[in-house]
Structures are given as C-alpha cells and as structure tokens.
Amino acid sequence: MSDEVRILFVGDVVGSAGRRTLLAVLPRLRERTRIDFVVVNAENAAGGHGITSKIARELFAAGVDVITLGNHTYRQSEVYAYLDEEPRILRPANYLRGQPGHGSCVVQSAAGGVRLGVISLAGNLYMGGALPVFSEADAALHSLRGRADHVLVDIHAEATSEKVGLGWYLDGRVTAVVGTHTHVPTADARVLPGGSAYITDVGMTGARGGVLGVKRQQAIDAMVTHMPARFESADEDPWLQGALIVCAAEPMRARSIVAVQEPL
C-alpha cells in the first residue's frame, strides 16, 4: 500500500455558487497536489436544501469519489430512490434503518488499489432525530472491518464538544474524523496521539459574502425581526474550504492534515 495516499475532503457545498466553485477549483487542486480520493459533503448543494440526483451525478462526473450528506438529506424527495441505488452517496449511518440510503461505503483508488471506507454520521446535540452517534459509529466501523485500508468519518454536528469527543473516541481506529455542518472552519487540524487526523469543522464551499452561504440581508432581517424568512443561497466571494489528509503507510493512520481554503 502506498504511503502517500491523499484524501481531499470538501466542506458543505452550498447552492449553485458552491457547486460552481467546486467544479472550477477541483482541477486546480489536482494539478498542484496529487489526490487519490475526493470526498464532498453536499447536503446543501440544491439551493441550500439537500441534494438532487442530477447534482449528485454532476459531482461524480467531475471526479468526486464519495458524497456525504447530513440533516438536509431528505429535503428533496426526488433523491430518495437514488440514495438506495447509488452506494457512493451517504446519508448519516445513525439514521433509522428503514430510511432511504446507506451510511457507509468503500471505494478503491485508481492507482495502487487502496481501499477507502467512508462513514457519514449526524450529531445528537441540537440536531434531533438521529440514533446515538457513538454506538452507531462503532456499528458502522464493525461493518467495514477487513474491507478498508483507511476510513474517513464525516461527523455532521452542531456541538463542537460532540465532535471533539467523537474524535477522541475514534482516535487510533480510523484514519480521519472531519466535522461539518457549522460552515465555519476551525483552527484545530491535527493528528491525535493515536494516529487519527482530526478537525472540528472544515468550513463550507460557497459564498463567504453571505451568512453561512445565505444571502446576508435575508439572514440579518430574520435575526433582527425574529420573523420567518425564506433563505436563498448567496453568490458573493465564493471559496472552496476543506481539508487535505495524507495517510500513513500503516492502515487507519494519518501522517498529516491541513486545512484547504481556495478562492474561485
């Protein structure tokens, strides 16, 4: 197994600005840095609310290996059947068994035959609806036993304490734990003592000129008036945000993790 396996994880793709940024910046990143796997959280890709099968196919065609989702997984009912049919698009593994989709998958690199397992999880604190994340993480890892050389976990959660706790809980058992959902990158990317790469939140891929990817005046008006509002995705100042993980030669271990922030 190669000791230079590189995983690019891209944070929450928000709306058309996020999709446009990902499609434009990804080839540029590939030119500068050899990337073996691209994993993208795209639960806000359809106008900020879920994903459609058309958008998912577009991302796969652009070279994305795995798509992870989150609390907006089921906002677009059209995608339900596709979630069952396509194993490389993941809803949180700790959603109910009877809900559409898969919570984990394994993909193989084009060169070297390295197998990457990916697990999608949703937090419990302030999120609601998901099964206990720690025990379900154990179950998802058990299902991948013997099938993957490296495992990346996307924890889509609101509470930073829950993400940090899960990082420590899985340290030494997975290659990387990366956080999504809050759309703001944190400054704590590091390899934990057990060998797992960790970051609390990788940020978002979309318009930084808005409020978490939403048109800023709409967000401000809602906060000022406390009245319901329909949010639209912003377009101003789009960036790709994520993390680049370099795997160690030993399975389930990382050599390094660095934040990625790239303007359109």
Give the low-pLDDT segments.
none
Elements, N to C (H/E) = EHEHEHEEEHEHEEEEHEE
E-strand count: 13
Name the overall outline.
globular
Q: What can you see in these coordinates?
A:
With 264 residues, the protein is α/β, with parallel strands linked by helices. The chain has six helices and 13 strands. Strands 1, 2, 3, 4, 11, 12 and 13 form a seven-stranded mixed β-sheet that branches. Strand 5 and strand 6 form a beta hairpin. The chain is globular and about 55 Å long. The two termini are 34 Å apart. The mean pLDDT is 95.
Short summary:
Helices cover about 25% and strands about 25% of the residues. It is of the alpha/beta class. Strands 1, 2, 3, 4, 11, 12 and 13 form a seven-stranded mixed β-sheet that branches.
Layout: helices, strands, pairs:
Blueprint: E1 6-10, H1 15-32, E2 37-41, H2 53-61, E3 66-68, H3 80-85, E4 89-90, E5 104-108, E6 115-122, H4 133-144, E7 150-156, H5 160-170, E8 176-180, E9 190-191, E10 197-199, E11 206-207, H6 216-225, E12 238-247, E13 254-263
Parallel strand pairs: 1-2, 2-3, 3-4, 6-7, 7-8, 8-10
Antiparallel strand pairs: 1-12, 5-6, 9-10, 11-12, 12-13
